[in-house]
Amino acid sequence: MNANTLLHKEAPLLEVKNLETAFQIEGKEYNAVDKVSFSVKPRQIVGVVGESGCGKSVMSLSIMNLLPKGVGKIRSGEIIFDGVHLENKTENEVNKIRGKDISMIFQEPMTSLNPVFTIGFQLEEVLFNHMKISKKEARMKSIALLKSVGIGRPEKLVDEYPHQLSGGMRQRVMIAMAIACQPKLLIADEPTTALDVTVQAQILELLKEIQEVNDMSVILITHDLGVVAEMCDEVIVMYAGRIVERTDVDTLFHNPKHPYTTLLLGAIPKMDEEVERLSSIKGIVPSLTKMPEVGCRFMDRCPKAMPECRSITPVLSDVEQGHEVACLLYETSKPREGVR
Description:
Elements: H1 3-9, E1 14-25, E2 28-40, E3 45-49, H2 56-64, E4 72-81, E5 84-85, H3 91-97, E6 102-105, H4 109-112, H5 119-130, H6 135-148, H7 154-157, H8 167-179, E7 185-189, H9 197-214, E8 217-222, H10 225-231, E9 234-239, E10 242-248, H11 249-254, H12 259-266, E11 317-320, E12 323-325
Parallel strand pairs: 3-8, 3-9, 6-7, 7-8
Antiparallel strand pairs: 1-2, 1-4, 4-5, 9-10, 10-12, 11-12
């Protein structure tokens, strides 16, 4: 039995079931994440792709219980981590898990790191929150963590402030903070967005190495399909708050089913082709306040749209073993008329 078969048979580390996350806008609630279900197995890297505004980051903040208070909330659904339901946990209960068993790397390290505290202070704070450790031990461990993520002169850098570091160095600090307590699950939300290409490659290589060494599961949120091809075992494609396709990475690239996925792949520049204009997807993702309640949310941008796409909401279902698609082009995904 090979490693992939063993991975497939293992119980999930994380299960998300019918998650609905809403934001309040002018007194009314709108779902930014709508009936999303997926799982992540131990040691698996799951990529989540889609344009800005598709609900990727909101989904990750829901898992971490970091939605803005009074504005965003989980309306319904289940988030089960290592057999424990997280959706109904108190803030104190979640704090014991967050940072220790589940960690997150945020999009912009300059705004994620506190500018008035040293790098060492911020690393030590993570350790003090979850470990019984002395000040001296925490400093030594902080230096070791910085060294483990490829930062030179860590003994000096612990006493420096975020503004004294480059973008790549700040992102490495964020990774060090995220892995400080050796979490079982790491959520990386666009971890290379603000970095130049060479630094991006270094950060991705570092993440892959850390994942393998620590046997972590990873949810990698990105809009870059090249990153997905390099890093991931499985891919979730999101559009307008819903999952439209989910399968393993090889199948997604060689046999995409949903028109949105096909268009995303078609927009990747190809080195062996000379074209005057790069391919793009017409239109934009609908805003929360203008999201259609019934029908396919991609219809107005879809080159294969049919009249029934406006009145029937496609349901995510298997078109092949291990390959789920939400599209009326595939008979198995057709629900009853008007079903949302």
